[in-house]
Amino acid sequence: MSVEIEAIKNKIHALVNEYVELKFVKKDFVPHQQNVPVSGKVFDADDINSIVDASLDGWFTTGRFNIEFEKTLAKYIGCKSVLTVNSGSSANLLAFATLTDPELGDRAIQPGDEVISVAASFPTTINPLLQYGAIPVFVDITIPSYNIDVSQIEQAITSKTKAIIIAHTLGNPFNVEEVNRIAKKHNLWLIEDCCDALGAEFNGKHVGTFGDIATLSFYPAHHITMGEGGVVFTNNAKLAKITESFRDWGRDCWCASGCDNTCGKRFDWSLGNLPYGYDHKYIYSRIGYNLKITDMQAALGLSQLKKLDGFIAKRRHNYSLLVEGLKKHSDKIILPEATPGSNPSWFGFLITLKNNAGINRNEIIKKLTDAKIDTRLLFAGDVRKQPFFKNVNYRSLGDLKNTEIVLNNTFWIGVTPMINDAMITHVVAIFDEILN
Fold it and tell me: Which ranges in 171-307 belong to alpha helices (H)?
């Protein structure tokens, strides 16, 4: 890079720093005037400058920043392969699509096969099953972990069962060691949806590294953000290869963008019914997609990764303050608890109203909203009750009593790094007013 170009880039960085300082001024929190957010992006001038650097490269598709991001995240998680995609929902789609591939032989998931999950989830954890013709089998959850009841899983397994796909609820790991044991015992695939759980650990090991394949999301609400974006990650080289093909149009070629003839025999392949020597770059072995990200997104993600440990520490701090402040109301509300053996990377703070709370969920949410405290429900609540599920073929193990409780009585408030101690004090004070 020439001295002149470097000087211009330095000027651009300086202007970005000045712009961010003026544009995104942090104000002192004033109760009842400013919102206590439930989630949101946390960024600084370094993040914006990273995006600027990628755009100044003039290489707008996946490139050098993406390569570095995948490598850095793989090292952080402790896995062999990280593949970026355009969203966490796309990551779930690709992870499931991978397990349908004929290359997996008898273990490939086919239409009519059963997949175990939970109904208290985000829809796109479940949707890929439906899109590929599999049948969801729902098991109940436990409260206050809000994760799958592992004691019921084996009762749900039949000769048609091929896989288990479940999320670590709001950053609180499910008992992944036990679920993985059951999966291996019955020769089932295990997909870990870690979209809300980046940095969470079970017995000292990162979630997502127990099962066969896992996913993350980098939507602005999550632990780090690319704006939109996600990853599929795995320690299985065959699964990684299949996933990459599905992501990249279904092509058979594995050359990176801008590269040719990595295999050394680009015009020497004979696949399908194509003529011998057909260009390998245009041979498609799967019905695929194009779900790649841009290098600007990757640049933002790479910058955000440097802050991840601090973000997680702040989330755990906010969780602890909320527990300490709200435990006095444990006769009326159920507070969230970490799964034994886990170290959650909290995404949100789940609260379930008890029958004697003296207030229903809509009423308490309205009072919190009036006090400018944002809330959310546990996503679909019970996906079986959603409009799009009306004609879906599924099976449930029992009546899912705890899922029904979540559907009617559960909501969550934020622990995002956007929240400071003064906000927590306000939240606790409002809960005191409401519940007293």
Answer: 176-185, 237-247, 295-305
Domains in the chain, number: 2
Give me the chain's average pLDDT, please. 97
- The CA-based angle 430-435-436, given to 5 degrees, is 100
The answer to whether residue 311 scores a pLDDT higher than 70 is: yes
Whether 43 maps to a domain, the answer reads no
**Residues 199, 295 within the same domain:** yes
Question: What's the rounded Cα separation, in Å, for the pair 250 and 100?
Answer: 13
Please compute the mean of the pLDDT values over residues 264-281 and round it to a whole number.
Answer: 92
Instruction: Tell me how far CA of residue 364 lies from CA of 150, 213, 359, 374, 433, in angstroms.
Output: 32, 39, 7, 11, 11
CA separation for the pair 25, 23 (Å, rounded)? 6
Buried b (16+ CB within 10 A) or exposed e, 362-373: eebbeebeebbb
Question: For position 1, what pLDDT does the model report?
Answer: 65
Contact 163, 175 (CB under 8 A): no
Q: Helix axis angle, 3-23 relative to 45-57, nearest 10°? A: 140
What burial class does residue 278 get, using C-beta atoms within 10 Å of its C-beta: 0-12 exposed, 13-18 middle, 19+ buried? middle
Catalytic residue among 32, 168, 206, 222: 222
DSSP class of 359:
S
- What does the block give as tokens for 132? 């590929």
Does 298 share its domain with 368? no
332: containing domain:
308-435
Neighbours of 149 (CB within 10 A): 21
Same domain, yes or no: 208 and 290? yes
pTM over 0.70, yes/no: yes
Instruction: Let me know whether 293 and 388 are in one domain.
Output: no
Note if 329 is an active site residue.
no
